[in-house]
Amino acid sequence: MRGLLAPTVFSASADRARTHEGRYPLSTMSVNKFNTIFERDEAGFIYAHVPELPEAQTQGRTLDEAREMVRAAIGQALDLRRERGEPVPGEGWAATELAEVG
Q1: pLDDT tens digits for range 1-25
Q2: If 56 and its partner were Cys, which of 49, 60, 70, 77 is the partner (CB 3.0–4.6 Å)?
C-alpha cells in the first residue's frame, strides 16, 4: 500500500450531537461507539471507514477533518438503519499492527 499510513483505530462516538436540534428526545438519546480506520491515500487525503458500518465511509484533508466527517457519516448511517428498521450493531473490536516482510 504505497503512500498509505498504517491504519489507526479510533473509537468514534456517535453521541447524537444533533439532539440540540430537537431531533431526538432525551429519553432516546444513546451513545454508540464504533471502530474507525484512518488511512492516507496517494493524493494525501485521509480516508476513514467503519468496519461495523460498511456504509460509513468518508475522507478529509486532515485527520481532524476526517474525524469530523466520519462522525457525520456514522450519524447518517445510524439514522438510515433506524428509519429502515435495520439493526444497529454493537461496539465492535478491531486491532492493527505492522507486519514486517523481508
Answers
A1: 344 444 444 444 444 334 334 444 4
A2: 77
Does residue 88 belong to any structural domain of this protein?
no
Reference 88, options 69, 75, 97; nearest CA is 75
Q: With contact defined as beta carbons under 8 Å apart, do 36 and 11 qualify?
A: yes
| Cα-trace Rg, the chain | 15
Helix (H) or strand (E) holding 37: strand 32-40
The alpha carbon of 44 is separated from its chain's Cα centroid by a whole number of angstroms, namely 19
CATH code where residue 66 lies: 3.30.160.250
**d(Cα 62, Cα 1) in Å, to the nearest integer?**
19
From CA 102, how far away is CA 98, in angstroms rounded? 13
Nearest to 37, CA basis, from 93, 84, 80? 93
